[in-house]
């Protein structure tokens, strides 16, 4: 049996290890995750992988 990694969906709160901050996934474009800060609605950044 293989163990699957949890999938990330729009609306999930995640920790971006590269940026060292928490964010909410707002979109996935071509495999790149678009994140926004947890406590703000403006300002986004991208994460190239789910790690």
Task: Describe the secondary-structure layout.
Layout: E1 13-16, E2 21-29, E3 32-37, E4 45-47
Supply database-style keywords.
single chain; 51 residues; mainly beta; four-stranded antiparallel sheet; 43% strand; globular
Verbal overview:
It is a single chain. The protein is mostly beta strands and 51 residues long. Helices cover 0% and strands 43% of the residues. It has no helices and 4 strands. The model has no long low-confidence stretch (mean pLDDT 83).
Strand order in the sheet with the most strands: 1-2-3-4
Number of helices: 0
Mean pLDDT: 83
Rg value: 11 Å
Q: Helix proportion of residues, in percent?
A: under 10%
Q: How would you characterize the largest beta sheet? A: 4 strands, antiparallel
Q: How much of the residues is beta strand, in percent?
A: 35-45%
Shape: globular
* Helix and strand sequence: EEEE
**Structural classification:** mainly beta
* Contiguous uncertain segments of 5+ residues: none
Number of extended strands = 4
The separation of the N and C termini measures 22 Å
Short description:
Helices cover 0% and strands 43% of the residues. It is mainly beta and 51 residues long.
């Amino acid at each position: 049996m293989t163990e699957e990694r949890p999938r990330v969906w729009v609306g999930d709160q995640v920790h971006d290890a590269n940026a060292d901050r928490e964010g909410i996934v707002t979109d996935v474009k071509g495999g790149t995750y678009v994140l926004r800060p947890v406590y703000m609605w403006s300002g986004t950044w991208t994460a190239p992988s789910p790690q």
